[in-house]
Write a structure and sequence with these properties.
The protein is α+β, with helices and mostly antiparallel strands. The chain is 37% helix and 37% strand. The chain is built from 7 helices and 8 strands; from the N terminus they run αβββαββααααβββα. The strands form 2 sheets. A 5-stranded antiparallel beta sheet has the order 5-4-8-7-6. Strands 1-2-3 form a 3-stranded antiparallel beta sheet, with helices on both faces. β1 and β2 form a beta hairpin. The protein is elongated and about 80 Å long.
Amino acid sequence: PAAASRRNEVMKECMVHKRSVAFEERLTDIDGTERTYMRTMYPLLDENADAEFLIGYGIDITANKKSELELQRMAIVAEKTNGIVMITDPERRIIWVNNSFEKILGYKTEEVIGIDPGIFLQGAETSVETIREIAYSLQNTGTFSGDILNYTKSGTKIWLYLNIAAVYDDAGKVINYVAVENDITPIKMAE
């Protein structure tokens, strides 16, 4: 009923204003599956420029809508988690960090966008061997899990357990790296 009502509104708008109109429409298939379509209607004008007929077509965008919803959910989880979440481009320059990144490390988002995190997080006591392991593992497997000694903006040492994974496009090319990091300093201090 709501879909038919919306479609009627669109048809009227298309006829009255004599222009194409695009809209989303949710319909239930015969098997009960709900699908989302992007519909477009065009008026066919007669010799007096009056809308005589409407032509319409639709594209099934159900999969896109599901992907959008999943991305929204993941963004909420990444933003609300207590751990640090960071996304970089293929050259490992930061493109996004969550609030925990700011709270735990002391850097504001605008200070770190476009910068390789190793430049400002690693310091004098950061293990060169661990840095090599991270690079080797990401290059060969696309993932890394392990701990590293980093430094906050104020210079305080912080032990982080890293889980880093490459994100690939359909052609198998790295498009991002996603890192989820947890502060394990209390555990390291107790060792």
